[in-house]
Design goal:
heterodimer, A: mainly alpha, 2 domains, about 60% helix, elongated, disordered C terminus, B: Rossmann fold, 3 domains
Chain lengths: ~140, ~600
């Protein structure tokens, strides 16, 4: 059996450990808040690096203000193709391509569309993610 | 995993969402929650309807939880029994039993929080609740409450943040993990604090034991060490040692926050002490009484706010559970030392701790709640609904208790008892007492309670009576207020009665009793067949007593000095006004006395 002193020591250790974890969680929460803020700003600015594998053509068209048909054409998807309503991840899987390639292609298409249709300068993609091919790092992003 | 589920969500829509959330709720290691964030986001882009998503998600989760609960009900109990029989190195049967008991006590919280805050524990908690035979209705209530939040939060966040739902989910995840860590931290800190306290007490007890040994050996005793011999656990106010004459012992737990609870306990003791050893114990620290006295005299508004803020189910529950957590060990020690055969409590704020200490004691005994007020009870009385008997003092309280879910077969209408002196005082003569006090037996006499409240209003009333030269003489009960006693020591037509345990003869000598609208004071006036004049009250807790007084025509309510003066002038010259009140008081008293007869039989049946 554990002595009373040892139990007290163990509890103190656990308390310190949980305190450490709590501090870590606070830092984590601040980091997450910062990321969310950055992401929201980037989305508002129309930054194409924010395209995610969970998005559908419909969502991308909505977020980046590009006609769905324009994106369909870029990905060579027919209007009757059920792939139109599914995620980029599924489109990539059906074509046996990495999803990053699909994303890259869409990013190029959007930038091209903006050049063709807008007089105002197009927002510059963020350096870290611009067409890097690895936009997704988290589990929620597949 | 989401690579599979999100396309499924797109392909099959609501049925896919329902199925995935249902499977996750049963306990499968998949995150239905994450899918809800995504669904909320897709709803923002017009792919789903958020108002359909909510019922779909809640129904799936609740049904999944129900299945988990019934699986636990069927399979969990044998598993737990098997685990208890096995002798694991790190999981002894005692540890397991302690864990199970801990879960039973906190199941409601566990169910509620695991629906939306600590989602990962949802499945195991459903199983455990079933295995522990946690009542399904309570399970369903907490489950639906939690699942509503559990669906609203991710759907709402997903819908609001739309394309950034992943990052928002990550932020909420961090925050909820922090809350969970914080809760764990508080639990560990609590355990550490309790252990350190126990450690200190053990060392003190050891010091006392050493002192005894020294005394027995004829060695001189260090004087200060005797302080520790007054066990903080048993500040008994009155009583005899448990079971010393073969009578069963009844323990009455009170709180000295307000004199009425002690009066009621003494009234019960007077009624029961022929057949039982009755111990009256205030299990709380004397600081509680001192704090209450200070607040009730100087910051009565604080009491009113506290009463109003906690007079709802959630706040009352939180308050009771916090108090129980803080003090149940102290209660346990009292139970171990007094070894009662039955426990009665006359104060709501000790009821939860009493129940908890009784439940975890080696030998649980019947627990009785003596409900206190006349018209309406505070919600803290209804947090614990598992006492063996509830004694309702009035028909109004009986109805309220029924409405609050107290089972009818455990609720008894027993009237409100008063201390023995209030039954005996009727046999004394009014003239005798007044003559002894040096007052005129033929003059209208007012018994004025002055000690238990702020003295300013009492001073004003006496001043008005004297200046107006009303044909009124006053018996002034000053309690422990020495300054007030000195002020009126030589005032004509005012006789000062300092604090006394035998106050009934003085009250019986008056024509009208005036003072604060406390339930105990009003009951005592009824037993003496005296009309009651309410001159002050603690707003909130005593306000309903005014309705009671008016409904049963037991007295008058005059909170302004000028009104009081006018009324007293009328009463002094018109005896018919008094007679009319006395007649309805007698009717109420007759009912109350008859109802009081049931107290002894209820207690006898429980023992």
């Amino acid at each position: 059996m554990m002595s009373e002193r040892a139990k007290l020591g163990l509890l103190c250790f656990l308390l310190l450990l949980v305190l450490g974890i709590a501090a870590l969680m606070v830092a984590n929460a601040f980091q997450a808040m910062h990321t969310l803020q950055q992401e929201s700003n980037a989305l508002k600015a129309g930054d194409v690096s924010t395209i995610r594998p969970w998005m559908t053509i419909h969502v991308i068209s909505h977020v980046y203000h590009v006609p769905e048909t324009y994106l369909d054409e870029a990905l060579h998807i027919a209007r009757t193709d059920p792939l139109r309503r599914t995620t980029l991840y599924e489109i990539a899987a059906s074509r046996r391509q990495p999803v990053e390639q699909i994303i890259h292609s869409l990013q190029q298409t959007i930038l091209k569309y903006r050049k063709e249709h807008s007089r105002s300068p197009t927002p510059t993609p963020r350096q870290s993610r611009v067409l890097s091919g690895t936009p997704a790092t988290k589990e929620t992003q597949f | 995993m989401n690579a599979l589920f999100i396309p499924a969500l797109h392909q099959y829509g609501y049925p896919a969402l329902w199925a995935i959330v249902f499977i996750a709720a049963v306990g499968a290691p998949i995150s239905g929650n994450l899918l809800l964030y995504a669904a909320g986001a897709f709803a923002a882009f017009g792919d789903f309807n958020i108002f359909i998503l909510l019922p779909v998600a809640v129904s799936a989760a609740v049904l999944g939880d129900a299945l988990g609960y019934f699986l636990g009900w069927k399979l969990g109990n044998p598993l737990l029994t098997w685990l208890e029989k096995k002798h694991w190195r790190f999981l002894s049967p005692e540890t397991l039993a302690r864990g199970r008991s801990y879960f039973r006590r906190r199941a409601a919280w566990a169910i509620f929080l695991s629906r939306w805050l600590i989602v990962v524990l949802g499945g195991p908690i459903n199983w455990l609740a079933g295995a522990e035979r946690y009542p399904y209705r309570a399970f369903l209530f907490w489950d639906i409450s939690g699942q509503l939040l559990g669906a609203l939060i991710p759907l709402g966040i997903g819908y609001t943040f739309a394309a950034s739902w992943g990052e928002a989910e990550s932020l909420f995840g961090s925050v909820s993990t922090f809350i969970l860590t914080f809760l764990v931290m508080m639990m560990i800190a609590g355990a550490l604090f309790r252990r350190m306290l126990a450690h200190r007490r053990a060392r003190s007890a050891q010091a006392v034991s050493d002192t005894h040994t020294q005394a027995e050996a004829g060695q001189p005793l260090p004087e200060a060490s005797w302080q520790t011999l007054q066990p903080a656990s048993t500040p008994a106010i009155n009583g005899t040692s448990a079971g010393h004459n073969g009578k069963p012992t009844i323990l009455i737990l009170i709180s000295r926050s307000g004199g009425g609870h002690l009066n009621l306990a003494q009234a019960l003791r007077d009624r029961l002490d022929a057949a039982y050893n009755v111990l009256i114990v205030d299990p709380q620290s004397s600081r509680v009484e001192r704090g209450y006295t200070l607040v009730s005299r100087r910051f009565v508004r604080l009491l009113t706010w506290q009463f109003a803020l906690t007079n709802n189910k959630i706040a009352a529950w939180l308050l009771q559970k916090s108090l129980a957590q803080l003090s149940y060990k102290r209660f346990s020690r009292i139970l171990a030392e007094t070894r009662p055969q039955l426990i009665i409590t006359t104060h709501a704020l000790v009821s939860s701790a009493a129940m908890r200490a009784n439940e975890i004691s080696a030998r649980p005994v019947p627990l009785v709640f003596q409900l206190t007020d006349l018209e309406s009870l505070h919600m803290t009385w209804f947090v614990e609904k598992r006492a063996d008997a509830y004694l309702a003092p009035t028909r109004e309280i009986f109805e309220q208790a029924l409405g609050q879910g107290i089972e009818k077969d455990r609720l008894y209408l027993t009237g409100r008892p008063a201390r023995r002196q209030f039954y005996e005082a009727l046999t004394g003569t009014r003239e005798g007492t007044l003559t002894t006090l040096g007052l005129d037996p033929k003059l209208f006499t007012l018994f004025l309670q002055g000690g238990a409240q702020g003295s300013a209003s009492v001073d004003r009333l006496i001043d008005h009576i004297l200046k107006a030269e009303l044909p009124v003489q006053i018996i002034l009960a000053v309690g422990k207020n020495k300054k007030m006693a000195e002020r009126y020591a030589r005032t004509d037509r005012v006789r000062v009665v300092p604090f006394t345990e035998e106050i009934a003869p003085y009250m019986a000598a008056a024509d009208v009793i005036a003072g604060k609208a406390g339930a105990s004071f009003i009951t005592e006036a009824i037993l003496l067949e005296k009309p009651f004049l309410v001159t002050s009250l603690i707003p909130g807790q005593e306000t309903p007593n005014l309705r009671f007084l008016e409904r049963h025509n037991l007295g008058w309510i005059c909170l302004e000095t000028a009104e009081q003066q006018k009324l007293l002038a009328k009463l002094a010259s018109n005896s018919e006004m008094l007679k009319e009140k006395i007649s309805s008081i007698q009717a109420y008293k007759a009912w109350n006395l008859e109802a009081n007869q049931a107290i002894t039989s209820v207690i006898a049946n429980l023992l």
